[in-house]
Design a protein that fits this description.
Layout (H helix, E strand, L loop, with lengths): L16 E12 L2 E8 L9 E2 L2 E3 L6 H13 L5 E8 L10 E9 L13 E5 L10 H18 L13 H12 L5 H10 L3 E7 L11 E5 L1 H8 L8
Length: 234
């Protein structure tokens, strides 16, 4: 039997394109939000999707992502990981395009300027109907994000340098779609030795009760002792 692959000219294997797509997550107004972009080119002009672009022949995937995010939001200095490649043959209506999906975590205060036209933050768990296969990519990233919260201190990547424990708990509640027991959660986080009190308290107008304390992430301790993984169990 003749292998059909041997009958295809070699140059046909070099036809196609590669792209990158970014799922960038932050925590704003008590919600986990994802950055979306209104597409300005066919075939999905005017529709919402994940920020992304075609990779230039002179770029590798990480270079393409760093260059793209710098141009798009003014920085590439944030936590980001490559998730996986999405390679369905018909995922792009204009031809064969394999996309390398990344997910990033950023605190919104890292943005020096307002978002560019066409960009917007949307609730990550209410988004649907995105162009291409971006719904599928977003779903995969949110699943990875949830797993990561149990193994790595990624929650602190979307929080400011000084934060209160109720914000940490809120992120876990949203990611796991549940209401964690507050006393147990606070006890677990404090015992992890990943945070330390700053000695400051948060003053809120019309707040009733003891004002919450500010904490900071002990990144040096994590990098020096925990290395790769932590284990949170709820």
């Amino acid at each position: 039997m003749i292998n059909p692959i041997t009958t295809i000219p070699v140059d046909h294997f070099f036809r196609g394109a590669f792209s990158i797509d970014m799922v960038l997550i932050t925590f704003i107004d008590d919600e986990l939000k994802v950055l979306l972009q209104e597409k300005n080119e066919p075939p999905h002009e005017g529709e919402l999707g994940l920020p992304g672009k075609l990779i230039l022949p002179i770029e590798d995937t990480d270079q393409a992502m760093n260059n793209f995010m710098t141009d798009l939001i003014g920085t590439n200095e944030f936590y980001k990981k490559q998730l996986k490649a999405f390679s369905d043959v018909n995922r792009h209506p204009m031809g064969r395009v394999i996309s390398f999906a990344y997910y990033g975590l950023i605190h919104f205060e890292k943005f020096n300027e307002p978002l560019a036209e066409g960009l917007s933050w949307r609730n990550a768990y209410e988004v649907s109907g995105l162009c291409f296969d971006h719904d599928r990519i977003l779903k995969s990233v949110l699943k990875r994000f949830r797993k990561g919260l149990l193994r790595h201190p990624t929650v602190f990547e979307i929080l400011p340098k000084k934060f209160i424990l109720s914000d940490v708990k809120r992120i876990y509640d949203l990611a796991f779609d549940t209401e964690l027991d507050s006393p147990n959660f606070r006890k677990m986080i404090r015992k992890s030795d990943l945070i330390y009190p700053t000695g400051e308290i948060k003053h809120e107008k019309d707040f009733i009760g003891r004002p919450p304390k500010f904490y900071s992430f002990n990144r040096e301790r994590y990098l020096g002792e925990f290395k790769e993984r932590i284990h949170f169990y709820f």
